[in-house]
Write a structure and sequence with these properties.
Length: 427
């Protein structure tokens, strides 16, 4: 192996970006379609689904903090984040298959138990190990903020493309191969993308750079206990602020993703519109993420996010007043997409800056534990979003076995859709 370069090149940044595509072949599929699978195919009540997902995500949030400490104490020739991407790649595929294969022969309670246990294993163990390691890698593969912002922009361009593919094609795959077949195909693609990230990226901010140097050349790390690590972490005020922002953003995103298929099918009357609704939300982000390095150069990360929230508020207001219009839904989602540009590339790049700030303030670098802010916020927020979807459907008296929903149910889905976009206003 040749010497690790001081800065990542274009190819390495693209390889990094593909890893998030792999994660989203798993997580976007779960976030957008698992509730539908549970309610319409397995026959689990919507309220039960919502409660189950919320409880599992709370456990998931705890596992993020545990995994963060494990990553910080991992020392291999590959570094401390990359090996976990390697070790969790195949379990990601197996976990996706597991959650979309609830045995039909189980009793009603047995199905709920299987769904809960398999979902906890997938979300709190497998996905946490993979995605937290992946997020940590951003802070490790370059010490330069410009590299991180550019890599984040590539990352989310790749992610948005995968999200579009999933939203347009999942139901077709399910129709041809069944839920288990779809999960197997998507999981296999995820494995390939994650292995590319592992193979073609390097870590530069810790001792892993010693792969190509004598052991004595590596800078020694300051050793601290787990308890001390948590104390130091919560002295970092930006860690707390960023965690709150992640929870709020991913609550809104969880509602948006989870309800979109119901809104397209039962309110707009055409399930095929789910892809177009997603396109309206995603395309502005895809374009914006490519130019975001220039936006942040002109405005800065924080100012860009504030402006983004203002644009999102306008989009939410439009959809709240006219929730049954397809054109209005398209326009509102475009505004949400434009406003969300800084919350994608910028927010994740800022986590790496928070790691640097914590090291400056305390003298200890906590890459994995600080990056648990991203995973914790994403999981808890997505759990709240999924719970809102399940409880909202239950409140609307949704019947997963009915060929068509009652008028009161359709009205309830409209209300839940409009209300579900509003958590973004609370930050």
């Amino acid at each position: 192996m040749g010497k690790v370069s001081a800065r990542p090149g274009l190819g390495e940044k693209i390889a990094f970006a593909l890893g998030d595509g792999g994660c989203n072949f798993v997580w976007t599929t779960i976030g957008s379609f698992l509730t539908l699978y549970y309610t319409d195919n397995v026959g689990i009540a919507a309220a039960t689904v919502g409660t189950m997902m919320l409880l599992s995500r709370l456990l998931d949030g705890i596992s993020d903090l545990i995994m963060g400490t494990i990553i910080d104490r991992t020392h291999t020739k590959w570094g401390k984040a990359r090996p976990w991407i390697l070790w969790s790649a195949i379990p990601m595929m197996l976990g996706l298959i597991m959650v979309f294969t609830v045995p039909s022969g189980l009793s009603a309670k047995g199905k709920v138990a299987y769904a809960f246990i398999s979902y906890v294993i997938m979300a709190a163990v497998i996905y946490t190990a993979c995605n937290l390691a992946y997020n940590t890698l951003l802070a490790l593969f370059s010490p330069e903020p410009k590299d991180r912002v550019q890599a984040s922009s590539f990352r989310f361009f790749c992610t948005m493309a995968i999200v579009l593919f999933i939203n347009y094609n999942t139901q077709n795959f399910v129709g041809k191969f069944g839920w288990t077949g779809m999960a197997t195909i998507f999981g296999a693609i995820a494995v390939v993308m994650l292995l590319i990230t592992f193979a073609f990226t390097r870590e530069r901010n810790n001792e892993s750079i010693a792969e190509n140097k004598p052991a004595k050349a590596a800078a020694p790390e300051k050793k601290v206990s787990v308890g001390q690590s948590f104390k130091l972490l919560f002295k970092n005020k930006y860690f707390i602020l960023l965690t709150i922002i992640f929870v709020v953003n991913y609550t809104a995103l969880g509602v948006n993703n989870g309800l979109r298929i119901y809104f397209a099918r039962d309110v707009l009357g055409n399930p095929a519109l789910m892809g177009t609704l997603t396109l309206c939300f995603i395309l502005p982000k895809m374009i914006g993420n490519l130019v975001y390095p220039y936006i942040v150069k002109a405005l800065g990360n924080w100012r860009s996010m504030v402006i983004g929230y203002i644009i999102e508020i306008i989009g939410v207001a439009i959809m709240a007043f006219l929730p049954t219009s397809t054109t209005v839904a398209f326009a509102g989602l475009v505004l949400l997409g434009v406003g969300g540009i800084p919350h994608n590339a910028g927010l994740f790049a800022m986590v790496a800056d928070v790691v640097d700030y914590g090291e400056w303030k305390t003298g200890v670098r906590l890459d994995g534990l600080t990056n648990s802010a991203t995973s914790f916020g994403m999981k808890v927020g997505a759990g709240l979003g999924s719970a809102i979807v399940g409880w909202g459907l239950a409140w609307a008296a949704y019947d997963g076995k009915a060929k068509a929903q009652a008028a009161a149910t359709v009205a309830g889905i409209k209300s839940a859709w409009s209300a579900g976009q509003r958590p973004a206003l609370r930050s």
